[in-house]
Amino acid sequence: MTKTLITNGTFVTMDDQLPVVIDGAMMMENDTITYIGAQNEVLREQADTIIDGTGRCYLPGFVNTHGHAAMSLLRGYADDLNLQVWLEEKMWPMEGKFTNADVRAGTMLSIAEMIRSGTTSFVDMYDKMDEVGAAVEQTGMRACLTRGIIGFPIELQQAKLKEATDFARNWHRTAEGRITAMMSPHAPYTCPPDFITKVVEASIELNLPIHTHMSETQKEVDLNVQQYGARPVEHLLKLGVFDRPCLLAHAVHLNDEEIDILASHHVHVSHNPGSNLKLASGVARLIQLRQAGVLVSLGTDSSASNNNLDMFEEIRLTALIHKGVSGDPTAIPAMDALKMGTIDGARSIWLEQVGMLRAGYKADFIAVNMEQPHFVPRTDMVSHLVYSASGSDVTDVCINGRWVMRKKELLTLDMERVMFDAEKSFQGLR
């Protein structure tokens, strides 16, 4: 058993049972945190490796609860368009050309970006998911993966559903437990009702959660009413989606009754402020969702609609936007925003023992360089992380007890090769 002790560090625990900030030490044994607290000479004698954490702030790695990693290949390809034009005229035609190698290249590019900016766990909904699983397994990331299924053309529904269920069976709880799976009908407007019902039945058979896009735009809500005589929440409720553990992406356009339904069925929501702003989809009713008891986490969506995967940015946007639209500067305090990016993210995708620095939790954490002007003076470390920091401040990343970045050097992938392969893939697609 390997014991690593970090001394002289500043630790932001996200643990309600501990002080918010601890100046002291943290021990990990293999993949698990075994101690966090004051400096401890006994642990120093027991440690196999001692790391001096002076000038570093350690906190749980970020959990990005919605994205499409391979779409990094389309970053900057089509901007400043509304969602349906962006999807139907730009994204989908290009994505239809993606090969296995393209998905692998785009996913590796996103993983490199996520590690470098402090994300240790992510959700990915896409196609050719065996390539994504292999990339996660290789790089040491933690991920909740799902083959997103569009229900058209109808003659391909069965094949797509089989592909999604086979992927879930083959990959759930693999890679030392770092990979979990979900079932994902893409959205109510891309999947006929009877097909969504089949995906629900598959989720029951496999005992897996459901992840889907919902109510991202007002046009989507209006279309659902025209086609099915109900808004998306009522529609999915009737189809049994909310009888399963469920994570919704976006959920921007909700009324009070819909928020109550989501709360009463314990539905989780991934709030994607950057993507929603860029596509002018709107601003989700985050304050009302949280007041109703809905568990809300944060996601970047793809870097084709964001256009980066920096969770520091999503956390800061969340804290700022909802102050601005509500007129209440206390609406989303810094600590609440940081929790949404860490522990609430882990809970949103049913990860146990992830999201806090606590003895018994997985050693998934990051280190931020505090020896920079924007961290001075040393007033409130949570405030500095939310309002001042960015992904470029991350120096070290540990996932499941394994260092995947040390002193800004990626240890599980070759960044130059990853960038070369991604550029080559894009030029081939274009």
Oligomer: single chain
Q: Note the beta-strand portion.
A: 15-25%
| Proportion of helical residues | 25-40%
Overall shape: it is globular
Radius of gyration: 21 Å
CATH fold-type name of the largest domain? TIM Barrel
Parts with pLDDT < 50 across at least 5 consecutive residues: none
Give the CA-CA distance, first to last residue: 50 Å
Main beta sheet? 9 strands, mixed
Second-tier CATH architecture of the largest domain? Alpha-Beta Barrel
In CATH, what is the class of the largest domain? Alpha Beta
Q: So, the CATH homologous superfamily of the largest domain?
A: Metal-dependent hydrolases
Structural class: alpha/beta
The number of E-state strands comes to 18
Mean pLDDT: 97
Total discrete domains: 2
Tell me the number of helical segments per DSSP (H or I, 4 or more residues long).
16
Could you characterize what this model shows?
With 430 residues, the chain is an alpha/beta fold. The chain folds into two domains: 3-61 and 357-410, Urease, subunit C, domain 1 (Roll); 62-348, Alpha-Beta Barrel (TIM Barrel), CATH 3.20.20.140. 39% of the residues lie in helices and 22% in strands. It is built from 16 helices and 18 strands. The chain has helices at residues 41-46, 83-95, 100-116, 129-139, 157-171, 193-206, 218-228, 232-238, 256-264, 273-278, 286-292, 311-326, 334-341, 343-348, 381-387, 415-429; strands at residues 3-12, 21-29, 32-37, 49-52, 56-60, 62-64, 119-126, 142-149, 179-181, 184-185, 210-214, 246-250, 268-271, 296-298, 365-369, 394-399, 402-406, 409-410. The strands form three sheets. Strands 1, 2, 3, 4, 5, 15, 16, 17 and 18 form a nine-stranded mixed β-sheet that branches. Strands 6, 7, 8, 9 and 10 form a five-stranded parallel β-sheet that branches. β2 (21-29) and β3 form a beta hairpin. α3 (100-116) packs across α16 (415-429), α5 packs parallel to α6 and α13 (334-341) crosses α15. It is globular, with a radius of gyration of 21 Å.
